[in-house]
Specification:
The structure is a homodimer of 258-residue chains. The first copy, chain A, is an alpha+beta fold and 258 residues long. In chain A, strand 3 and strand 4 form a beta hairpin. The first copy, chain A, has 2 domains: 129 residues, 3-Layer(aba) Sandwich (PSTPO5379-like); 108 residues, PSTPO5379-like domain (PSTPO5379-like fold, 2-Layer Sandwich), CATH 3.30.2040. Chain A is globular, with a radius of gyration of 18 Å. Chain A starts with a helix and ends in a 7-residue tail after the last strand. Chain A is built from 6 helices and 11 strands. The longest helix of chain A is centred in the N-terminal third of the chain and has 13 residues. In chain A, the strands form 2 sheets. In chain A, strands 1, 2, 3, 4, 5, 10 and 11 form a 7-stranded antiparallel sheet that branches. Chain A has a 4-stranded antiparallel sheet with strand order 6-7-9-8. At the A-B interface, helix 2 and strand 2 of A face helix 2 and strand 2 of B.
Chain lengths: 258, 258
């Protein structure tokens, strides 16, 4: 099993350009959002006000390329397998590094992702359907509004995992231990109550099988801040390419609260 | 028992000018830090990097005087019993409202305080010594450094509560449920290991009795961000007067993670 450091080196040298799910399984992987300083305070505040979809693992100093707290010696410009560049809310490029886009006024945000709590669920012998079916987790836009900050505003996006009735309590207990990676579910049961019309037609990702004894359980999703940021059309925004996360040196278990 | 709203009205009209400990006991009370916009991003980042001493309950939009999320219709300029005004790190005034100091570029930070987890400890039949002895909680400067952000840097300040040996596990469990108000202890036992020379001579607050079967337990303290901010000598900073907190409409139990 390769260490996060070794994996980041392979990514930096463009030997790994794939999804990062399953790589360094015991370590925290993060979503990435990079914004110019002029939008950074409002976005940081947005993350604080909406910590369930936007759990901050690390925010880099203005202009810094090294996540000194979560991955010392790494470089945020090279160590993600694939990026997305948005100008005024429009996707303009999907490069494997962002050297030529880098600016001294950039602030980089690393946001926790669900890989951490999914590992905890599996450890607790709770099935994670989309992993079993080798699919992308189903994601839905909801009727729940995030708490606005400056230009950043928009609906909450959720992921859905079908959970057996007998495992609902354990699922809540296990995921509650990890507030820094979306934590406890935000809704259990009837999708209609949070504005989801058809549970078999996700807005993003793939549909998954829901068995008769299972209840759909919904978690705040790390895609929320990206969609919210895009809705607000900042002049420039850089993110990771979906599924192509930043791998940190932080062990999953070290960020639990209990 | 008066509601938070009623209490804030009495405070606004300067009928209550005392400490707020014990008022509206089931509701979250907060520390207050107000800084000009030019220092706000660095301070917000400092709070994120040091969430144990600086748990953010709410950050107001630039220039806003109303904590819309935690106490709608309140006014941060009037609804704290007593304030402290610091210029270049020096205390210059202790007014009962800050109307004449208010500026449109001010950002107000509400930070969780230990009253919430102390209530949870008492509910779990764990003695809180300084409350029993009617004293201010003992506080100590430690050899532990906070994680720097911009100009904000300095040592972690901790509070100490002596806990009976048989209650240590329960104490950790109970306080771990409240990461937004300092949460789990940061150290248990030997004070020397975190740079505290004499457990009976706190740097701030009062000494309390430690019985033979008790172990000193240390929590990150909400005084940390104030001292750190003062060390960095921002041109202007406003805080609450110690013990004279802002009373929110948030019930303590609603901010637990489990």
């Amino acid at each position: 099993m390769k260490s996060p450091k070794e994996l980041r080196k392979l990514i930096r040298n463009e030997i790994i350009q794939t999804q990062t799910a399953g790589l360094a399984p015991r370590f925290v992987q993060t979503n990435l959002v990079i914004l110019p300083q002029e939008n950074a305070f409002d976005f940081l505040l947005f993350c604080n006000r909406n910590s369930k979809p936007c759990p901050l693992i690390e925010v880099l100093e203005t202009g810094s390329t090294e996540p000194v707290l979560s991955a010392p010696k790494s470089d945020i410009r090279f160590d993600v397998p694939k990026y997305r560049i948005y100008e005024n809310g429009k996707l303009v490029d999907e490069p494997t590094n962002i050297e030529k886009y880098w600016r001294k006024d950039f602030v980089s945000f690393l946001l926790g992702c669900s890989y951490t709590f999914e590992e905890a669920l599996i450890d607790a012998e709770i099935q994670v359907r989309h992993l079993q079916e080798d699919k992308t987790v189903p994601m839905f836009f909801t009727s729940i509004q995030t708490k606005k900050s400056g230009i950043f505003d928009g609906p909450l996006v959720v992921t859905m995992r079908p959970i057996h009735k007998s495992k609902i309590v354990k699922t809540i207990q296990v995921t509650s231990r990890f507030p820094n990676v979306h934590g406890a579910p935000i809704h259990i049961g009837n999708p209609d109550e949070i504005g989801i019309k058809n549970i078999l037609k996700p807005d993003l990702g793939d549909a998954v099988t829901i068995h008769e004894d299972e209840i759909p359980v919904f978690w705040a999703c790390g895609v929320t801040p990206q969609l919210v940021a895009l809705n607000s059309k900042p002049p420039l925004m850089i993110t990771h390419y979906p599924g192509h996360m930043f791998i940190t040196d932080i062990k999953n278990e070290t960020i639990s609260v209990l």
